[in-house]
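Section handout, structural biology tutorial.
Before the tutorial, make sure you can parse a SMILES string by hand: atoms, branches in parentheses, ring closures as digits. In the record below the ligand is manganese (II) ion, and the chain has 414 residues. In the tutorial you will relate the predicted structure tokens back to the input. Do not try to memorize them.
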Amino acid sequence: MKENKIKIVHFSDLHFGSGERYGNINPESGLNKRFEDFISALDKPVNFAIDNNVDLVLFTGDTYKHATPEPVYQKEFAKRIKKLSLSKIPTVLLVGNHDILYRIDGSDALDIYSTLGIDNVTVFNRIELKNIETKNGIVQVIALPHITKSRLLTKEEYRNLSTKEQDGLMIEKVKHAITACFEKLNPELPSILIGHGTIESAKFGSEQDLSIGKVLSYPLGLFADAPVDYVGFGHIHRHQILKKSNPLILYAGSLERVDFGEEEEEKGFISLELEKGKVNHKFNTTNPRKFLTIDQDLTLSTNPHGDLEDTILKNKINDAIVRVIYKINEEDYDRVNQQKIKLLLQSAFAFTVYADIKHKDRTYRIDDLDASLISNPILALEKYLFDFSEDDKKILFEKAKLIIDSVAQEVNQK
Ligand SMILES: [Mn+2]
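Predicted structure of the complex:
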């Protein structure tokens, strides 16, 4: 009998255009060197799929930093999709929150692939079940793209509800829609569910550069008993497995690190072997760019420059994105030669050096901020916030007024 294992590659959260502040322009290509890192990260799952002659490629959303990407980001993504298409590998693209433009037209950054009708490419922008034909048979794919309130609810439905009630109603609707898909599944054929969103028990990564945004959070129970062979999610950038089997539920994670918040996170894509009722998976690293923090307290050091140099030399900084943070006493500040430290870091991909100065006398004086203002806390606060922006001041004043009023009320009641 013919062996019917279906080979799948699943990757997610590409985010072209992100993290470029750590790269400069490559004069030969004209591209930001960090963008080149992101491109080579995308090449890993794409080339793996072609080299291993896989049957199906799944991308679970967030293609770019924004839903209005610069042409160069679109071009480099399109080249790879074309390569998969020409290799006749069915490729599924799922819409993530960063792909959606919050306008009434409801368009998204992946629309172009369905509009042009690219061979072997399927875009999912709503909850639905489609049969994807592969060279090893049909795979039933249920898609749960990023859900927006405006696509799921009518104004009448949510007008009088709190945010929490709206979320509850949306989860009910999603449950209803995916249950309807489950009922349509042919139990003889392999099936998967792909999603873009937050599942409650998942651990967030600490990427700071990309606002994950306030999105709906699904209970794990929504998928824990799903009658499918695999549940593959995107959105959270930290790769993690939420359920080991029946069905396997995981986040593929993103392909490259965006910032120092992801220093410790491994990055890669998932390869799968799928049969009806059975799935094997493997995490494949993309060998992402290394981020390295060198953090040293020199406040007790008798030789601060030498100690900092020694620490830097102990680390592998070649081709890494490095930040050096050293804590130093104010009076010792000149004893570290930052120029020399920077020379030591020349082999890094990028670096920053930051002195965290410990001041001898932490109190400092602001003109006119004295005891005479004790009966006018708002005026005192205004003096204290002299170097804050007008916008920040306004927010802080509003909060301060609430606190002052409530304290005054308490005092008056006594
Ligand atoms: Mn996302």
